[in-house]
Write a structure and sequence with these properties.
Blueprint: H1 14-35, H2 44-64, H3 67-83, H4 87-103, H5 110-126, H6 130-145, H7 150-161
Length: about 170
């Protein structure tokens, strides 16, 4: 889920710099997540690098982005937290992603809502909240089925098919 990187930013334009770094870091984290090259069993230095990149992307999105960018940034931090074995952080950021989607229904897309539920279910499962995770996963699946654009739906379904699910069956 990469974003087209803007041209090199004007170093005198702080907003342009924030946007450039947000996009660059976002894409870097997604490349790592897509490659599944960092896991909870990876060396701590690799886990820290991807976690800090996700958090930095979120910081920059919060400087210049809209509520949609904030929700997606919270998703990214939650997902990275799951992958790196930080379930409590994952749950906290997944909850923020859901709340941002709920507070901004006119701004977020159908796939944003589905993805927020996907990461919340994953975070709940990582925290051993099996019943809640199963219910949230069912909601995520229903929301994925309702995504209008076939390409967006395929992205959500692809994420739902990925591990780790901590014993849940996606």
């Amino acid at each position: 889920m990469t974003i087209e990187l803007p041209n090199e930013p004007n170093l005198d334009d702080l907003s342009a710099l924030h946007r450039w770094f947000a996009v660059r870091l976002n894409n870097q984290v997604w490349d790592i997540l897509d490659a599944e090259s960092v896991t909870a069993s990876s060396p701590e230095s690799e886990q820290a690098q991807v976690m800090y990149a996700a958090q930095a992307a979120a910081h920059h999105w919060y400087q210049v982005g809209s509520a949609v960018n904030h929700a997606r940034a919270e998703y990214l931090v939650a997902r990275t937290s799951v992958v790196t074995g930080n379930p409590h952080e994952a749950l906290r950021h997944a909850d923020r992603a859901i709340k941002l989607c709920q507070a901004n229904p006119d701004l977020v897309s159908d796939w944003d809502v589905a993805m927020a539920h996907e990461v919340l279910a994953r975070a709940q499962a990582a925290n051993g909240l099996t019943n809640e995770a199963a219910a949230t996963l069912d909601t995520a699946r229903a929301l994925a089925d309702a995504v209008v654009d076939p390409q967006d739906r395929a992205v959500v379904e692809g994420e739902l098919a990925r591990q780790p699910w901590f014993g849940l069956s996606p």
